[in-house]
Amino acid sequence: MKNVILISLLLIITNAITYWLSDKIKLIFLKNEVPIIAEIQLETNCELMNESFVIMDLLTNKSVTFNMSKAYLRTVEGNPLQVQMNPNFSDVTSDFEIHKAAKKMKIDLDCNISNRLKNTLDSLRNTFKN
Fold first, then answer.
1. Can you count the helices (H) and strands (E) in the chain?
2. What is the C-alpha to C-alpha distance for residues 129 and 126, in angstroms, rounded to an integer?
């Protein structure tokens, strides 16, 4: 009987402490999502115009096109972003590097050394040959 009362008392005390400290416990376990407007600068030596690319937030599936080498995307800091081909080029596939979202970003696409980008450009050229 003594053990049952002791265990019950211990459970009540731990539940009360957990309730009072729940806000601090949430901060430890939950990711702090900071909404930002990411300014992405695209640097490329490709034959394509920068308007041929979009930046995509892979968690929310929001995307924006580049205008004069810049794009502004409302996202959350740390979300995975990826440069993709504009959806207008539906027959073209791309698989570019993934970057974590930040307020100011600079993404470099080097068409001379990237096999994935070379394959994308070859796919684009083959699309327009037909």
1. 3, 7
2. 5
pLDDT tens series, the chain, 130 aa: 888 898 999 999 998 888 888 777 776 777 677 899 999 999 988 777 888 889 999 999 999 999 989 999 999 998 999 998 888 876 666 678 899 999 999 999 876 665 666 677 777 777 776 5
- pTM value is 0.63
CA angle 121, 122, 125 (to 5 degrees): 85
SS (H, E, C) 12-62: HHHHHHHHHCHHHHHHHHCCCCCEEEEEEEEEECCCCCHHHEEEEECCCCC
At what angle are helices 22-29 and 2-20 packed, to 10 degrees? 70
Q: How far apart are CA 28 and CA 18, in angstroms?
A: 13
- Only one residue has tokens 């968690």, namely 59
Q: Which amino acid is at 81?
A: L
